[in-house]
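for the record, two folds in this file. i put them one after another cuz i was lazy. first one right below, seq on top, structure tokens after. the second one comes after a little note so u can tell where it starts
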Amino acid sequence: MEEALVDSVKNTPPIRGRKERNSSIELFRILAALLVLIVHLNGWMLGGLFDWDDISITPVHKYGQLAIISISCVCVNCFLLISGWFGLKLSYFVQCYLMLMFFSPALNLLIEREKKRIALYTISIVTIEFVMEHVFQNKSLCINEGYSLFHFVTMYLVGRTLYQYKHEILKYPSYLWILVYILCAGLVGFMQLMGYNKAFAYSNPLVILESIMLFLPFVYYNFKSKTINALSESSFSVYIIQVTTPVCTTLFAVDQYAFKTLSYPTFLLLTILFSIVFYLVCFVYDYYRRRLTKPLLDRLEIRLSSIVNHII
């Protein structure tokens, strides 16, 4: 069964230019958006990581939060890997992603011309990021723990490199990547326990590796689901809505109230359920938003194209 699926993936071109998207990758996109919600509700909206010296917070809360963030801190990197795997097409930290879209044609051209060396280039850039950010803590490249264009370009190149070597990747059993993902998550959590304050940084090489390991099992499968593909179209909107006022401030208040009044297992279960419901609500909102704005945007696109063509 898995061999047939692997063969199907091997013969599947990138999404660009195709009307039907691989729902396995779109499912991964939805998962990445849910992980953003979960890590925010379990960390950022609670004021960050708990103080381990605070005796008012139980060990269950502390270790539970540590475990959840360790497996969820890959969320943004996951989006970037998808972009790199398929090659970004104009169609997420919003400013950096827009800049990445601007540079992506040049990056794609470089990748096409240097296919044999792209892995070497990618490894070199990841090494530079690690050395500058985590060894020397040098801020000259403005890596900022992954909240930067430099890191976005790095992850884009990682995604494209993975795509270039997809045939070699698919030779290994998919469960291998899941095991390595779990191992990486454990090591990232251990780094945080040991006092390394950049353990959960998107630029942490272990977090990058963890992101890759979570992504790879999804590339083994190729199927079509209109429902999954439709839901995945709102993944970016989910991110935008949950960090925008007044939704963000409301989530902060509700999240902190729930944490203070519920046991941690109950809080965690409700966090997961709430994330799913919140995603679905955002999907409905985004669906009607696109229906209402599409005619206007289509006319605007035609008008702008006409102006550009006239100038040219």
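(here's the note) second protein begins now
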Amino acid sequence: MVSLSIVIPIYNDAECVKPCVNRLVQVSENLVGEDYEIIFSVDPSSDNTYELIIEEHDKNNKVKAILLSRRFGQPQATIAALTCSNAHYTVVIDADLQDPPELIYELFQKAKKDMMSFMPKEGQEKEKLF
């Protein structure tokens, strides 16, 4: 399990892939060192979005991709990536970076400070939500 997972639903955003990865890697490494993953959930695109994500994965195996079997839309793409997240903390962000990734610093610190707990089912470990 990693400390931080960043989930990005993406569709026809090839021009956003490299800037998005660069900024998210910088933020992640400043926060948790190498203890992170970046998960793109790709609705099948008519551009080369998926191929560019694979190129980024080849450079950095912390970058991962889920390719959906058909166009499901942003909510389902997000849920698919959340399902695959393997982290103590998970953040969802759009690939176009309308929300600056640097806000993750504040979210991460707030989550660690003001985290809510819930009771697990019998036989499960106690989990934390924010």
